[in-house]
Please model this.
Amino acid sequence: MSKAKNIYARPLDLKHGRVNMTHGSGGRASAQLIETVFSAAFDNEYLRQGNDGAVLPLPPANSRLVMSTDAHVVSPLFFPGGDIGSLSVHGTVNDVAMLGARPLWLSASFILEEGFALSDLLRIVNSMAQAAKVAGVAIVTGDTKVVERGKGDGVYISTTGVGYVQGTIAPSGNRALAGDVILLSGTIGDHGMAIMSQREDLQFESAIESDSAALHELVATMLATGADIHVLRDPTRGGLATTLNEIARQSGVGIVLNEDAIPVHPQVAAACEFLGLDPLYIANEGKLIAICAATDAEKLLNAMRAHPLAQFSALIGNVIADDACFVQMKTKLGGRRMVDWLNGDQLPRIC
Amino acid sequence: MKYVDEFRDGALAQNLATSILKEAQPNLTYRLMEFCGGHTHALSRYGLLGMLPANVQMIHGPGCPVCVLPIGRVDLAIRLALEHDVILCSYGDCLRVPASNQMSLLKAKALGGDVRMVYSALDALKIATNHPTRQVVFFAIGFETTTPPTASIIRQAKAAGLKNFSVLCNHVLTLPAMEAILTQPGGFPLQGLVGPAHVSTVIGSKPHQSITTRFQMPIVISGFEPLDLLQGILMLLRQVNEGRAEVENEFTRAVTPTGNLKAQALVDEVFEVRESFEWRGLGSLPASGLKIRAAYAEFDAELRYPDLIYANVPDHKACECGAILRGEKRPQDCKIFGTICTPDNPIGSCMVSSEGACAAHYTYGRFSESGTAKINVSGLSRLHE
Model:
């Protein structure tokens, strides 16, 4: 590496420098950016091979490969509790984990906008490296492209994750059965409201932090209880309501929620109140839903509550037989209503 | 949450539901109209409709600002965005209102129109200040609640000497709409009205007396919180049972007899009553809308862009929004409800705003027509918490 650095006339100015079109051209400037920023932060045996892809070992016998991909376009790029870098790791790690798998490797593609500050890029990449390290996954291959100023929004990151799932474990959105119960790993809406609180046109003061976190260790803990987990899902975009509607349709069942049991951080509830939003539809990045047989519920809930990422886990509802696949909710007030799919963007009411 | 949880208390709600059940005489049917979309939304969102006895029926009224906006007015806004290259600012719900030729402001945005969603009228003014080289138009809609903020920004724009800001005014008045409902030909029996909440904070409770006197119609002004609504319904039943027709105020923590005099003065300074204004579902109603006064004419988008001429556009043939807004039909009575017309692809305006009767029923109430609505939730398995 030290010899290779000599081919560059001068080091990259990571303090005041900005991305320019040559950083994506595939020439010397691209190589310098990759070496100085990406390889340095993500360093691992696969990246060190210096190839355009990674050669990976086979998973253990009696296991199956799992793969998932996710694009990240969050705005603002930095928000309380995380940034686009850590989010791009957690998002994909969680998608792999929700299939009952242990995520091992990630790929990462960056689309950078001309003029983007290298200091911000470095901050994002370091955050990504840190998140990957904590999660125990390696970023083994990647790509960088640059688009003209005005054609992007700073940086977009797309990550793909590969892991493996052992034995007969097979949580799936189509396995919810009438009689099952629904467990939720904690408060809802934290991520979405943390982002909203930072939006340029909507800044409000709050201590709400994104819940962005890698959930595969929690999943491993849950699977270790031996509970037959029928469905695992992380309620990201569209929130809890949309995720449950997806599951109800996939499984051909109905769902009845108990509003009283759904944990919502008081600050999130308050922010939703004055913006006219419903926490059921606000995105989460560090929560999961587990659906299992009622007989396994207590065991699973206890294991979840013992994990630092799921202390406020709760049993929030039941799966019922319903050909219409409706998600209903018993309201705090004692009434009943439907909980529908997210419709368009959440728009505030005006009076 | 302080000042909110108090009005959403489940135990108190059950008490009120029991009182309503006791008050409702089994041999009578009570048809009550909640005027405001905010009430419609709350009835559905908190599941209140299922807590009422079958002979207490809530008819959803026309007090949803987005729902009563006629197609022709949205067409004007779309033309401003696409043909006049302005920055068109609008409240969120307006963006998806269906207009002519299957257009909407959201679709105009996708075609390159600079359409921006704002959370307050003040944001529109800020955009104008920050973009001095662009013309900025605020698409102002709403009843008396949202009118004072619009008046305020027009006055501020004048004080600041802004040359690039104007307002396309669609503000409407509550009482003419109430009258129209109660005088419509072939009208229908209505035993009471849940009077508007936020509108009444501005206009006060007193003006509603003209309605009770003229139509012998009980009115209870109620807040938007679920306990407010249940209490308001109970008060209406009592009025009906006792043969009274009065204006009663349940929302005393916010509504006074005379309302917000400062806001009224501000509105009066900037706006005057239009000769007539078209409402979706109710047709052209005399003296039911506001326009900008001559003293502020430079901020009137309809004068600044003289080619903007309003044209009446009939609703989609199968759409029953009109009858629903008049309280004649329920959303589920419409043939295209939930099939062709859904919140994702609204044909009529009542399917757009969460305050619209159709959207509220689609989003929150549809299950009540299926068999699973009878399943007792508390009987399902629960763990020790």
Notes: Chain B touches chain A through 63 residues (CB under 8 Å). The first strand of chain B starts at residue 30 and ends at 36. The radius of gyration of chain B is 21 Å.
